[in-house]
Amino acid sequence: MLEFIARRSLQAIPVLFGVSVAVFLLVNMMPGSAIDVLLPPEATQELVDQVKRIYGLDRPIWQRYFSWLLLLLSGDLGTSVFSAKAIGPDLFDALKNTLQLAVLSAAVGFSSGTLLGFFAATSSSRAVDKVLSIFAIIGVSIPHYWLGIVLVVVFSVLLNWLPAQGMGEPGLPLSWEQIQHLILPVMTLSLIPMGIIARLVRATVLEVLSRDLVPSLDARGLHRPTVLRHVAKNAAPAILALMGLQFGYLLGGSILIETVFNWPGVGNLLNLAIFRRDIPVIQATILTLALFFVLINLAVDILQAVIDARMRRT
Amino acid sequence: MLRTAYSLASIVLACWITASGASAQQTLRIAMTTADVPTTTGAPNQGLEGFRFAGFPTFEPLVRWDLRVTETVPPVVPWLARSFESDPADRKRWVFTLREGVKFHDGSELTADAVVWNFERFFNESAPHYEKNAAALARVWLSVVDKWEKLDKYRVAVFTKEPTSYFPEVMTAFLVASPAGYEAAGQDWQKFSAAPSGTGPFRITRVTRTSIEMSKNPDYWNKERAAKLDRIVLLPMPEATTRLAALRSGQVDWIEVPPPDAISGLKSAGFDVVTSKFPHIWPYWLKTTGDSPFKDARVRQAFNYAIDRDAVLALLNGAGEPAFGFWKKGDPRFGNPKNDYKYDPAKAKALLMEAGYKPGELVKVKAIISTSGSGQMLPLPMNEVVQQGAKAAGFDIEFVVVEWAQLIQNTRINPNSPQMQGVVAVNSSLTTADMNWFFRSFYPPNWSDWQNPEAKGLMEAYRTEFDLEKRTAMLKRIHELLVDDAPWAWIVHDTNPRAFNKKVKGYTPAQSWFNDLTTVYIQ
Q1: ipTM value
Q2: B136–A84: do the CB atoms touch at under 8 Å?
Q3: What pTM did the predictor assign?
Q4: Considering only CB atoms, which chain B residues are within 8 Å of A152?
Q5: DSSP secondary structure string for all residues of B38-91
Q6: A66 — phi, psi (to 5°)?
């Protein structure tokens, strides 16, 4: 098992290096620079070029890449061209904010999706299966930013039960005031993972139920809950893999939800940095998100290997 | 016994009243359109909205627009300087005499040394307190500044590169930060930005990633302009529907730029929606040379007659007014141009025929527009309305749609470069209160490549004319040429709507991009 973990961990290094090169090349191919956005529109091109030289943005691309890489390897995520602030603290805060949404949305979405899909697959009533499947389809089909706006209109504007935007005081959501701010964005964001997980769980469980495994467990005289537990264990690896991917997407920050709810997360930060051409921020954010993706997938691989020993041989 | 009880009751009642009054703090929560909090070092980014909220309320210039004047464009008046004058012997030299006894928020005094320190901050790269980002912005705002000199404890001389009659307007962007505050922040601009020190009626007390809080400055030097509010909270909220929901749910008291289609709903729900004679223009810049159809003045005039301004304003639900020139009718600089542009397809077509176009022949126009942007209002639907109206009047407009940053970049490059993809018109809005911008737009070289010898001569004379009446007369004539020769299509002016809940009182709508928040209070 340890050898498996070590092997998987080492494989992450070339992945991250490849991501750093790809990210750097792609963002530097974008037309314009942060200076174009930083300076007011009435600035002349000559002035823009002058300021670019001051910021070192006229150096060759390979020089800029290695300067950035060296900085990164020393643990420094760099400085925003637009705000002149160190990127690390702002990125860390944005990640924490997105993590709050992601973890709660994943918890709500995955648990409700799993229950929906499992009941849909194991119910003896076709009507129940159909109704639950419809909920799942609604989850993947409704534009979630539209739903967010509707929820705000109903619960904030009309009923005045919940705040319309923002996250309240920063930090862990320990007060009711902070929790109130989370309710609507979590409800909105959990819908898509709920729908996707429900559909996969239903399909996977149906597939497992169709194998010889279930009749042979029945023949041994096992009770239904025990049989279903075995079914769940067999269905788990595929579902876990998808949950890992979905959690990674949630962690990337939904820019639409963060915009509707004015949530200061990673999606917001990245979107702003793209519009501002703030390349150091874009690079640092994407690389950090890639690192999280790699770590989440590593965790999923380990979990799968724990559940299914056959996975350890891969 | 009764007298004692009465006295006791009076004391209790007095304490209760005092406590109630003391606890009723006046807090105004404002939702801005900015995507991020503006920088708080006295050189605000996020455009003019950054100045409006994170600039003037806390940092002040030597001279400032008088924002309590609402009937006309606000004049520039002495502010931290009690007087300013141009040296008749050397028109590049301006002397500013500071008010004595003005204190920064940290208690230190404003002197000529502080003013010189701020110039060094923006322009002297070897100064230990040089602030790179602020310097980049200052190079644009204060581009005409050449050098400065301390004359004595309260007087500073500032020199421009060329005689610049409108230099006081330029100096409204020079905000003064406290050198002592910078020292107290360990000579670190990031730390200073968390606890800034200026001279304004409000002091910034807290800055987070999502808000700026400021409190009333009880020691403000200008007692007549002291703040009524105790506290202001600024919240960046770039999405218009989010701002609207925040106002309607009571999370904020004031929002900038409500969505136009929500204005009537807000009014019927009891909110106040105020507009102003905002110095803004939403035009098309027309390329007047090369293979552009707009190289003929008759085609440019025809295009102005092909704009259905009423249809554009109907889309905006009253959050705009028609534009007939760079400035507005009624402005002393408007003059008496021969052309009074209204939507007149017949006139537009007649002009096109004079210019050699056949009946029914459409003029092909490739225009670059943005998806959003500061001052751009609702660029996509507005441009579609312009396109529809222009089609009926002889113009076939094709759009190249780019994001705002790309559009700004394109306005800086040669219009004949391949990067422009044959574009002959740019839809880029701007303030009409900034003479730097005026010169950049119309004095050669300019994007339109407009080279009117009379206008050019007048603009050169304007720079060196220090008599206000003569300057106004020059601007009038330049404006007449701008309207009649039409290097731009004059479409609409924004009226910069904002919405408040009923508790917000005292707002004074100056004809400016900025507001005086000291008149505002909560009822």
Answers
A1: 0.83
A2: no
A3: 0.89
A4: 242, 245, 249
A5: PP-SSS--SHHHHIIIIITTT-EESEEE-TT--SSSPPEEESSEEEEEEETTEE
A6: -70, -35
